[in-house]
Write a structure and sequence with these properties.
The protein has 258 residues and is mainly α. It has helices at residues 3-38, 42-55, 60-74, 80-104, 112-129, 133-146, 151-164, 168-181, 186-197, 213-223, 230-239; strands at 201-203, 206-208. A two-stranded antiparallel ribbon has the order 1-2.
């Protein structure tokens, strides 16, 4: 070997040694942060992850976990300004995680797309908590595009955000996408029904709901006759004068005429 080749080999060995040391230290910080998050000690987690970023700011997982810590810590804040500050920090951390993850994502890693979509999902949740509904919806859409097998969940999250924002028509469209992706997801029918009944009108003392409202609640009850939303679904049906139709203990009745 030439002196130059020997020098290059030594430099490579030194680089590998440094990488091993760095990874070990980062894993220790990450483990400490995960334990703190589990214990809801979010400030300790934030401190550990910021220390990790000082060691090496190019690790997407560290930024992702930092985003989680900031987002979760925001829920515990009583000062609105501090809560907003932490949500902004969560958004910035997730954005950095996405940027770094995009730089290393490749077709050879079967989990790369799913991980990137998860980053987008949590970024969207931070946007939603910060009141940035449009940004949240766009970001959930990116997650769905990247990870089609999980698209139904991202559409459901979209529908939830839109429901909370009072965007009824958009929420209904989102839950329709969930149903198209997974026709047996009961809660999608329930929340579609909730949004539809929000468009109901009064004719005298009678509540008149849009077409499809009763069917949505009835489908929920067919799929989950004793589910979490079974009683509210029955109450909603009663409020619009529709019958409860389930396959639980009785023959299914014909659909009511419109």
């Amino acid at each position: 070997m030439t002196p130059e080749q020997i020098k290059q080999m030594q430099e490579q060995q030194e680089k590998q040694k440094k990488e091993v040391t760095t990874v070990k230290a980062l894993n220790e910080k990450l483990a400490a942060a995960n334990a703190a998050i589990q214990g809801q000690d979010y400030d300790t987690a934030i401190a550990a992850l910021n220390e990790a970023n000082q060691m090496d700011s190019g690790r997407d997982l560290i930024w992702f976990k930092l985003g989680d810590a900031y987002r979760l810590s925001a829920n515990k804040q009583t000062d609105p300004a501090e809560k907003q500050k932490r949500l902004d920090s969560a958004v910035q951390s997730y954005q950095k995680a996405v940027e770094l993850k995009q730089g290393v994502t490749n077709d050879k890693d079967p989990n790369a797309a799913k991980s990137l979509a998860a980053y987008y999902n949590n970024l969207a949740e931070a946007y939603a908590k910060a009141g940035k509904t449009d940004d949240a919806v766009k970001t959930y859409a990116q997650a769905a595009q990247i990870d089609p097998p999980s698209a139904g969940q991202y559409y459901f999250n979209t529908g939830a955000v839109l429901t909370n924002s009072g965007k009824v028509d958009d929420a209904i469209s989102a839950f329709d996408k969930v149903i198209a992706a997974d026709p047996n997801r009961a809660d999608a029918y329930y929340w579609k029904g909730v949004n539809l009944i929000g468009k109901a009108t009064l004719q005298g003392e009678k509540m008149v709901a849009p077409p499809g409202t009763a069917e949505a609640f009835q489908k929920y009850l067919e799929l989950q006759p004793t589910g979490t939303y079974a009683d509210p679904a029955k109450q909603m049906l009663a409020s619009i004068g529709a019958s409860v139709e389930t396959s639980f203990g009785a023959k299914k009745k014909p659909a009511p005429k419109k």
